[in-house]
C-alpha cells in the first residue's frame, strides 16, 4: 500500500481509516472519495474527490488520475437500511463492489472490502462460529456480503487481483456515528449514558453479538493489507472479533463508570430479527494464524475510553 483510494471515506470506518492511513503513508497518498463532501477532517485534510461507486467510469478515472496501487472499498449500506430498501441495497452494495473490483483489476491494485458477521445466518453454528462454515444469511445485507466475499475471491482466482477482506463485528467508536446498522445500539448507548444516564435499547437482553473498538478494527485492516500474501490461505473474508456481549453486559460495564446508569428495553422487531439470525460469537483463529490478528480493547477498556472521549466531545 503506497497510494490508496478509499470509497465511502466519510462513513463510519472511512472517517477514521482515512486519517490513520494519511499518518502512515503520507497525506497526499490517501485519496478520500465519497458521494458527498462534508467538512470533516477526512474530507478536508488531504485529497478528496466525489465518486459515486455505481459509476465505474468515475471510479476508474479517479484511480488513474492519482495512479493508485490500492483500492479500499468501504461504500455500502448497513444491515437495517439494506433490509428496509433491499433493491437499492443490492444495486449499491453489489454494483459498487463490482466497480471497485474492476477498478482494482484495471489498475493492478491491491483491494480491500469489509464483510460482516451479517454474512452468517440462522443455520450457521452460533457459538465460536468457525471461519469456514454454513453461510445462508436471511437478510439482504448478508446476501450481499456472502456474494461479495465470493466475488472478491473470484477476482483473485480469475484475474490475480490481490483481494483481502475482514468479517467485521459491530464497530464501536466516538468519532463517526454508524447509520442503519443492527449493532448501532452499542454505540448509541454510550452517547445516551453521557447525555442522560440511561438508555432504551432496541435490541433485547440476552442477544449476544460480536463487537470491536474502532482502533483495533483499523489496525486489523492495515495488518491484513501488509501481510505476506504467501501466508494467506483465506482471503475473503477473515473472522475478526474482540468481544461478545448482550445489552445487559455493556450496561453493567457502563454502570462501573456512570453511577446509576440504567438500561430499559423497547425492542424493534426488525432489527431484533436481524440480530437473532447472526452468531453469538465468532472464532478468529484463522486471522490470528495467517496474519497475526490481535486486539487491545476488551469491553471495560473500551467503555472507559468511549465515556472519556464522549464527555470531551459532547
Ligand atoms: N455493524 C453492521 C450492521 O449492524 C454489522 O456488519 O449492519
TrEMBL record:
All residue ranges annotated as the NAD-dependent epimerase/dehydratase domain in the record: 4-230
Q: A Pfam family in this protein?
A: Epimerase
Give the Gene Ontology MF terms in alphabetical order: L-threonine 3-dehydrogenase activity
The family database entries (InterPro entries) matched by this protein are listed as:
Epimerase_deHydtase (IPR001509), NAD(P)-bd_dom_sf (IPR036291), NAD(P)_epim/dehydratase (IPR051225)
Specify the superkingdom.
Bacteria
Q: Kindly give the PANTHER family that the UniProt entry links to this protein.
A: L-THREONINE 3-DEHYDROGENASE, L-THREONINE 3-DEHYDROGENASE, MITOCHONDRIAL
Q: Provide the protein name.
A: L-threonine 3-dehydrogenase
The organism named in the record is Neobacillus vireti LMG 21834
